[in-house]
Design goal:
Elements: E1 2-6, H1 45-49, H2 52-55, H3 60-79, E2 85-90, E3 96-100, H4 117-123, H5 145-152, E4 154-163, E5 166-173, E6 176-177, E7 182-186, E8 191-198, H6 210-223, E9 228-233, E10 240-244, H7 250-257, E11 269-275, E12 278-286, E13 293-298, E14 301-302, H8 308-327, H9 340-344, E15 347-354, E16 360-361, E17 367-368, H10 371-391, H11 393-426, E18 447-452, H12 453-463, E19 469-474, H13 486-489, H14 493-502, E20 519-523, H15 528-544, H16 546-550, E21 554-557, E22 562-566, E23 569-573, H17 576-586, E24 597-600, H18 609-617, E25 624-628, H19 632-643, H20 647-657
Helix pairs in contact: 3-5, 8-10, 10-11, 12-18
Length: 667
């Protein structure tokens, strides 16, 4: 879970001046609009003009997308059965190389462009070797589309192709060939090697994240069993090397994702079969954790929002489990049928389909929209699940027991949730008595500070701006929701108060549109206890109020750790290093530093209301960290390790990261 620093914020509402309604903004621009105003972009100019349209962004995500575009072309060679290894290398000068042992990009003359097919693929948008569906039955990348985009956004690119014992090469600068494709000697094995250096004038950063690259390549190795993928990072004095090779494919992938959990059955489910030209592969295992982990892919592209293939998987799984449960008399009436939520609790599943011409919804390919994928997955899985339950009936019974337990918990949670909501209704949606609400009823202007303890709550209530700042003090440490079901969670008074204060309800009744505050700020003490409470609250929001995070509404306050005073010079600092620097600055030219009064705040309650307002709550001077999720899978894994029931993974994490601790509160 990443926290992004927020700059000094906009002035608070009481100082904002509204624009008069009778002063419309003139958005008409230049009155001239004729043929000369129609801009024609040639070659790769559109990519450099609007890079975000092709790679999503010009930040870190877009930078890494360049690697994925080139890598996907090599991976397509592997999926087609022509490549057995791919190597990605990060060089010290910022250059990236991606090499494979596939057939090599064609170098003969293209009949339409009258140029080498290699140059055509590297310099022409929408010129690819995968549009006809003959060269590649399935593909994630497209030679020409991804390659030409990478070329356009690089200061320099070079492609080396080995075909039938001859090496062919061509170089480019900002997308333009420097010479015709030429022979460059002899070579032994076929393949393609692409070297490129991203353009610093396009991207806001040129720093590749090795961890992200390793994670992505590992994922691709799982999805393409039998292929070796290597990553070499030469940017440091001691080169970093990692290699992936998985014969087990999705079975290995499921076990890897599930590595920190205890399975409730022995045999991992696995199915792989083609149905009407769609290759369907799926694997799953159930564990003792209540959360569901479903990862879905189409042509090896991660579909974070699921799609038709996931719908087909869920439909087949729910139907098959209900049929098996009835066959063993585990269910009573039809009203006791297992729901989709019941059968998904505790599952770790990977669904992968490979198909021609996949229809993705959205430019980022986050959701598969191909209708045929649903029928293919449903058909293959229905048959495979029936065979699985016949062969491993003991495992089937263990899964059913898990699902029935989830069903009982769902019903208990619904009753508890209904009680909370019904109580709110009977009391006219009465807000918690401990909540000091703001006078504003506009969510966009309102802020909710969640503070620990009555002492800090008292200072915050007195120091706040009542017009737009609400205060909700929580007593002690809230329940660790990573280890508790919803029914247990909703009887916790502190969590119940927070649910009602937010106004969004919870679980399947959650509605982000009803959020009463568009800034929800966690404000805890700057010590280990405060960090623990903050972690418990982050766990709560991540597991049960995820849209609050996704919508950018959750923040973390940054109270100062020290107050320094020398005469009328008063400063607030946030770290011991800042304190030492500030003391030096304040006493520059003086003989002694002992005259500086240093006060260390052990808690928010030690700050008087004026100090708390001035340093931590005043929008003109405060610093807030906005909570973001850069990698949902990694965030999920860390919450499981740090907040879950298993002790061994947490112990290993602490031992591995102990040397990274900088500010340890031992008081």
């Amino acid at each position: 879970m990443a926290k992004k620093a927020e700059n000094i914020e906009e002035e608070k509402p009481r100082k904002a001046a509204a624009k008069k309604l009778d002063e419309p903004t003139d958005n008409r621009g230049n009155a001239s609009y004729s043929a000369k105003d129609i801009q024609v972009l040639e070659g790769l100019e559109p990519v450099r003009k609007r890079p975000g349209m092709y790679i999503g962004s010009t930040g870190e995500q877009g930078l890494h997308h360049l690697i994925w575009e080139v890598f996907d072309n090599s991976l397509d060679e592997a999926m087609a059965g022509y490549a057995k290894s791919i190597k990605v290398e990060l060089l010290k000068d910022g250059t990236v190389t991606v090499a494979d042992d596939g057939r090599g990009i064609p170098v003969d003359i293209h009949p339409k462009t009258k140029k080498s097919a290699l140059e055509t693929a590297a310099t022409t948008l929408h010129a690819g070797g995968k549009f006809d569906g003959d060269s590649y039955k399935v593909s994630g990348g497209l030679h020409g589309v991804g390659l030409s985009v990478v070329n356009a956004l690089s200061t320099w690119m070079k492609i080396e192709v080995c075909k039938e014992g001859t090496m062919y090469v061509q170089e480019y600068k900002i997308g333009k060939p420097q010479y015709d494709v030429k022979k460059a000697g002899k070579c032994t094995a076929n393949g393609t090697k692409v070297l490129f250096k991203p353009d610093g004038s396009i991207f806001s950063t040129l720093e590749f994240d090795r961890k992200e690259i390793v994670s992505h390549l590992r994922q691709q190795a799982f999805l393409t069993k039998g292929i070796r993928i290597e990553i070499v990072d030469d940017r440091e004095d001691l080169p970093f090397y990692y290699s992936f090779y998985f014969e087990g494919g999705l079975i290995s992938f499921v076990r890897y994702v599930n590595r920190n959990h205890t399975p409730v059955h022995k045999e991992t489910f696995y199915a792989h079969k083609s149905y009407e030209s769609i290759d369907v592969e799926a694997a799953f295992i159930y564990n003792d954790d209540p959360d569901a982990r479903e990862l879905s892919f189409a042509n090896n592209i991660y579909t974070s929002d699921g799609g038709m293939h996931v719908t087909g998987f869920r439909t087949a799984l729910t139907r098959a489990l209900n049929e098996f449960a009835r066959n063993i008399n585990a269910l009573k009436g039809t009203e006791d049928n297992l729901t989709g939520d019941d059968v998904r609790e505790g599952i770790t599943a990977i669904i992968s389909v490979k198909l021609r011409d996949p229809q993705f919804e959205g430019q980022t390919k986050a959701r598969l929209g191909t209708p045929a994928a649903r029928g293919a997955v449903e058909s293959v899985l229905s048959e495979a699940l029936k065979e699985y339950f016949e062969k491993y009936s003991g495992d089937g019974k263990a899964i059913i027991e898990k699902c029935i337990l989830a069903q009982k918990a769902r019903k208990a949670a619904k009753a508890a949730k209904d009680t909370v909501l019904r109580k709110g209704m009977l009391e006219g949606m009465t807000l918690p008595g401990k909540l000091a609400d703001c006078s504003s009823r506009k969510a966009a202007d309102s802020e909710l500070y969640i503070v620990e303890g009555d002492s800090a709550g008292g200072s915050a209530k007195q120091g706040r701006d009542r017009r737009f700042q609400a205060i909700l003090p929580l007593k002690g440490k809230i329940l660790n929701v990573e280890r508790a079901r919803l029914d247990k969670m909703l009887v916790n008074n502190e969590i119940k108060s927070l649910v009602i204060a937010l106004g969004t309800a919870i679980s399947d009744s959650f509605d982000i549109e009803k959020l009463r505050y568009h800034k929800v700020v966690i404000m805890t003490d700057a010590d280990t206890d405060g960090a623990h409470i903050r972690t418990l609250l982050l766990t709560l929001f991540y597991r049960f109020f995820r849209p609050v995070i996704d919508g950018g509404f959750l923040y973390i306050a940054q109270p100062p750790l020290f107050r320094l005073q020398l005469g009328k010079d008063v400063r607030y600092v946030y770290t011991p290093e800042q304190k030492d620097k500030a003391v030096s600055e304040m006493t520059a030219g003086k003989k002694s530093e002992s005259n500086v009064n240093v006060q260390r705040y052990k808690g928010l309650g030690e700050m008087n209301p004026d100090q708390l307002w001035e340093t931590t709550m005043n929008p003109e001077f405060r610093t807030l960290l906005q909570v973001e999720i850069d990698d949902a899978q990694e965030a999920d894994r860390l919450f499981e390790i740090l907040m879950g029931d298993e002790v061994a993974p947490r112990k290993q994490f602490i031992q591995s990261n102990a040397t990274l601790v900088r500010n340890l509160d031992i008081t």
